[in-house]
Specification:
With about 375 residues, this protein is an alpha+beta fold. The chain has 3 domains: about 1-70, 3-Layer(aba) Sandwich (MutS, DNA mismatch repair protein, domain I), CATH 3.40.1170.20; about 70-110 and about 210-375, no CATH class; about 110-205, MutS, DNA mismatch repair protein, domain I (3-Layer(aba) Sandwich). It contains 10 helices and 26 strands. The strands form 5 sheets. Strands 7, 8, 14, 15, 16, 18, 19, 22, 24, 25 and 26 form an 11-stranded mixed beta sheet that branches. A 6-stranded mixed beta sheet has the order 3-4-2-1-5-6. A hairpin with a 5-residue loop joins strand 25 and strand 26. The longest helix is centred in the last third of the chain and has 14 residues, at about 320-335.
Length: about 375
């Protein structure tokens, strides 16, 4: 039995022992004090009875209270985790060391390009058509800038075109003669966060990576390792990574976020999230739950291991802001845990996204790999 006053209390000796052994609540001299999430879980899944002012509280009233508090998505994520036999401690924080970088993408010094050509900007479609097919062919075959002829059939067709990001990059390198300021101006007018997206493009290109459009995969770019080119004397190369730029001032519907990651994983590509650097400090955020996972296939708990994640839970119809995500990631870095973002769909099914810090060697912006996690 649980008594609901300002907090939720359980004093029955047999039940409190089970709760303490199951890592529920806080033991206060033989009485276990529970959070709202824990009390609801115990009533919802473990058939505990909740009483208030001597009367039993129907479970429907508890869910109504959850709706009034605006915490149903958090509860459904908590319930899913707990129902799998894993420990989730609500609204707890614990420093377990500095957050580690799980992978470093090494840089390669870029080769100086001595070629020169000029082009005309198509402001309606954001292509630049270039005037020298032979120079374009060398840029394409050796350095993989632009598109020669038809896509994947470069010998068919006599065009050489660049996209707006490639054109600005080559213009800044004095390789392409074009009205770069006009491209920048038009880009800022029509493409949200155009400068931020270009900043990320340039950083990866400067470190030797090939960066092409990620349109087919629902992201800004696809990334190829340094040295890759589309020479026709070998099989066509497929990218291993897609990259999406998410500035701190941007917002994204959670379902759109999920869709982009699902497309990338569906074609076996790593999803990289880029957050352009800003001088503004991260906001103070508090994790919804602290989670223990598994080590060597065995579930861990506060007695046998350290927490692995801070969990933040939202519904599929919620908006994710870049500022919130950046702040949550910085909080995780400071406390030495990974970020687990739980998105709860309209059927209360929960999808977990494990967001791990990566590093682009000598890069100035923040990068993360995102993958699904099955509890």
């Amino acid at each position: 039995m649980i008594e609901w006053k300002k907090e939720f209390y359980c004093s029955d000796a047999e039940e409190t022992t089970k709760l303490i052994n199951g890592f529920f609540g806080e033991n206060r001299k033989g009485t276990v004090v529970l959070s709202f999430y824990e009390a609801l879980f115990l009533a919802d899944i473990r058939n505990f009875r909740i009483f208030k002012n001597g009367k039993e509280v129907p479970i429907e009233k508890m869910f109504e209270e959850g709706a009034k508090k605006g915490v149903l998505a958090k509860y459904f994520a908590f319930r899913e985790w707990r129902n799998r036999g894993l420990v989730a401690l609500p609204e707890k924080e614990k420093k377990v060391g500095r957050g580690r970088v799980v992978k470093t993408y090494r840089s390669r010094k870029t080769e100086e390009i001595m070629l020169r050509l000029s082009g005309k900007f198509d402001p309606e479609n954001f292509f630049v058509s270039c005037d020298n097919y032979d120079v374009g062919k060398e840029l394409y075959m050796k350095h993989w800038f632009g598109q020669l002829g038809m896509y994947k059939i470069s010998h068919l067709g006599k065009n050489y075109v660049l996209d707006s990001y490639e054109a600005i990059y080559l213009w800044k390198k004095n390789i392409l003669e074009v009205d770069g300021k006009k491209i920048l101006s038009e880009g800022e007018k029509r493409i949200p966060y155009f400068k931020d997206i270009y900043k990320i493009y340039e950083e990866w290109r400067e470190r030797g990576y090939v960066v092409k459009t990620g349109f087919k995969f629902g992201s800004h770019f696809r990334i190829y390792m340094p040295g890759v080119n589309p020479s026709q004397d070998k099989e066509w190369i497929h990218s291993k990574h897609v990259l999406h730029v998410f500035p701190r001032k941007a917002t994204l519907l959670a379902s759109d976020w999920s869709r982009a990651i699902r497309v990338a994983h569906g074609v076996r590509k790593t999803f990289i999230l880029a957050i352009p650097k800003e001088m503004k400090k991260p906001k103070e955020v508090k994790p919804h739950f602290m989670l223990y996972h598994r080590a060597g296939g065995v579930a861990t708990n506060p007695k046998t291991g350290e927490p692995r994640f801070y969990l933040f839970a939202i519904s599929e119809d919620s908006m994710i802001s870049g500022d919130f995500l950046y702040s949550a990631l910085e909080k995780c870095r400071e406390d030495g845990v990974e970020l687990l973002l739980a998105i709860v769909d309209r059927e209360s099914s929960v999808t977990y996204y494990d967001i791990k810090r990566i590093e682009l060697e000598e890069g100035k912006n923040s990068y993360f790999e995102i993958e699904w996690l099955q509890p």
